Each structure stands twice: as structure tokens, then as C-alpha cells.
Amino acid sequence: MDLVVLVLITFVAATVDCALGYGFSSITVPVALIFYTNRILNPVLVLVELVINGYVLFINRKSIPNIRWRVAPILIGPPRSPSILTIQHLTIVTMLNAYLLFRFFRDRAVP
Known about the structure:
- The protein is mainly alpha-helical.
- The chain has two domains: 1-59, no CATH class; 62-111, no CATH class.
- Helices cover 78% and strands 0% of the residues.
- The chain contains five helices and no strands.
- It has helices at residues 2-20, 24-32, 38-59, 64-76, 82-105.
- Helix 4 packs antiparallel against helix 5 (82-105).
- The chain starts with a helix and ends in a 6-residue tail after the last helix.
């Protein structure tokens, strides 16, 4: 029964994620915490997110050379200061999200 509930929660979250671009974990975690403890839920969601992000990376593999310079700070390594690290990650995530939204809506016609 619990597995069926988790599958339904992840299915709804994935549907909303694909349709609206809203975060998969932002929908799944609050609802799934009703049924599972945080200790069980976190490792499972990390694996699910890894598979989803790997799939998206595979689908958009032709765009990797275009955004390589944006990902370079992550590959080089984060700075030592936590405040700079937070600003750096926030900047990278914001730029990557903006790029993905641009790619998603670029070929769509406005009704």
C-alpha cells in the first residue's frame, strides 16, 4: 500500500514537473513525508533525482558544449568560504534554470 502511494505521489509530481517546470522534489517531499520518515525518503529521492537529471542530460547532450563555461566553476571546485559557495551555487542554478526554460519555450508558439 505504501509503495503504491509513493508511486502515485512521484507520478503526479513528475507530471507537474514536466508540464509546468516546477521542482519534482518540491512537490514530492512534503506529501511523501506524511507516509515516510525523512531517513527513508531522502536516499530514495536522491536516486530518483539522479536518474531524472541523467535522463535530461542525455536528451540535451548536444547543448553541453554551449553551456560548458557555465558549469566550469562546479568542475573546478568550490571556494572555501561558505557564503561565497552559496552565492556561487545560487548563481549557477539560476543560470542553468534560465537556460533550460529558454530552451523549453524557445520553439513554442504563443497562443
